[in-house]
Every structure is written in structure tokens, then in C-alpha cells.
Amino acid sequence: GFRSRERYLVLLLGALILFLLVKFGRKYWGVAVHDVPRLAWTFGLSYWSSLILWLAESQLVFILRPLVIGTGLTLAAMLAIRFQRMRRARAASLEMLQVRLHAFDHGSVIHQLMNRLAFYLENLQNGNELAPAVREKLLQLARNTHSILKQEIDAILTYQYANNFAADLAHALERKWNQFRQLLHGLQRALQMDERPQPEVLAALRRGQEQIRAGIAELKQRLSAEYYADVPRVIADLLQQRESNGLALRPHPAMPRARIAAADLAYVLDELVSNSLRHLDGRPAQIAFELRHAYDEVHLEVHDNGAGIPRELWEEIFKPGFTTKAEGRGGFGLYHIRQRVEKAGGKIFVAESQPGGGTTMRICLKAEI
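Now predict its structure.
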């Protein structure tokens, strides 16, 4: 055998090569975070097998052979992952993943199931005896919660082949779901056997329920942080949907993407257009979008030829409940618009307006650097 320093040298070189392989794979070959353990096992097993089972004739062979074999097999595994991703790739996008996460978090069925489950868990933890009919309802609710949550999470997982970021999101959510599923199965078994679930099981189930909700909120936050919208494209889609009736996008230079979800920006612009159309006072619509790149921001202005807004109301119109309608209903459209823009770290305000002379709304969003 060789002295221990050669063995340490081989170990250090192996760790360095594995680190470089993973970094290269993450950047160029579509390797996601949850692929790293598999690659580490592939490299480690091939590395140690060649080191221990294959005797070396010289010191150089002792050092180089396990490194070459481990590197080769790990590269082959990375290529297999890449080809699998390409073969199974779906026409998915981060826009649709965000929509799915939002629907999961705010869907009425999910909320109803989770809230009712929390109500029954509270009754169980307080020591109240459950009538047979209530027990059967709780059992059915546990089954429904399992079934519907699984369908929703499976739908989210279909986006994992869109790109590395979507894969990491899906993997994190699947891990939380697997933990919660085991707790639900335990509750179902206890109810089916007409047993009272153990307090620690109920406490764990409640924690699991909170973790699912917190996990979805975290994924939405991570997705929003990584998300940028192609503003001219969003405007073009809006013009197409409204068949360009009185709407136009003025010529503009090449624009960087803006830090806002495309769905949020589409909602904001659609609401602004609808609001302008309601205040034309019989005039033909003339609504123009103007884009400018100002340092680290994208400025979007929406010009209309509506009735205009008095100066003293420029800030009032963004307050919840403010309306000029005679019946006094509504008044939340511009409030929700500002909420969405500010959620993305941007600003929206009245840049210019004259009674009878139209209004210019300006939206300032962070630009992609």
C-alpha cells in the first residue's frame, strides 16, 4: 500500500471533482437540487469500488484511476438525467405554475376541507366524544382531503420538467406532502377501527396542516422572487384579447423584463383599461401604452382620453371603497391594482390628469438586471 498522504490526496481530489461536476451540471445540463444525492452516490460508489477492489500497480495509477472512473460514470448519470428531462419535458411555464400555486392556496374546496378538518381536530383535542355520524363525517373528510390534495399536488408536480427552478419547487412540495399523507393515513386507520386518535397524532396532523399551508406560501414567495414579465408581450396579449379597439402600444426601444408576475401585470392593465372605458363620457376610446427604460426601472404609462380626475382625488381613488358611481357600489378596482403593483416592489400613481382632458397613469417596476 501507499502512505496515508496519498489516500488523503485522492479523497480531496475526489471531493473537488464532485463539486465541480455538480456545479457544471446545475448550470448547463439541467441538474436540479434533488438530483445531487444520486450523483454523489454514483460518484462515491464507483470511486471507492475502484479504489478498494482494484489494486494499483503504481502510485500514479492509485491516484488517477478512481478519479477517472468516478468522473466518467457521474458524467454518464448527468447525461441520462438531461436526456430524461428533454424526453419528458412539457410545454409548461412559470406563469402556469404560479397560477396553480395560487389556486391551491386560495381554492375554495381546499380551504373548506382544511378548515373543516381543523374544526374536527379541535373537537378531538378538547376531549369531546364524537357521535357515530360525526365520526363518519370526519373519516370521509380525511379521505376527501387526501384525494383532493393529492390531485392538486400532482398537478403542480407536472411542471417540474419545465426548468430547474420548477423542479426544485415541486420536490420541496412533494416532501411536505409525503409527511402530511402519513399523518392522514394514521387518522383514517384510527377512525376505521373505531379508536380515538392519540393526542400526539392529532397534534402532528395539525402541525402538518400548517406546514402544508406555510410550504405553499413559501413556494409562492420564492416563485415571485424569481419572476419577471415581458411587458411588451403582456400588452400585446391584452391588445389581441380586446381586438385593439381604441388601444395602441407606442413605439419603444428594446425593454428589459420587469419584476412582476405576468398574470398580475395583465390584471393591472386590464383593470386600468376597463376603468378608462367606463369614464369616456361618450367619446371614442383612445388608450395608448408607452414604455420607457429608466436606469434600473421599467416605466409604463397608460394614457386615455377619459373624463379626467380632479387633482385632489389623485390619491383618494386608490383607497378601498372609493367610487364615483351613483349607486355607491364597488370602489376596489384601483385599490387592488395598487396592491398587486406594490407586492412586486413597484409603484403606481396618477402622473397627469385634466378634467375633460384625459388621464395618464404611470407604473414603475424594477427592471431585470
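The chain has eleven helices and five strands.
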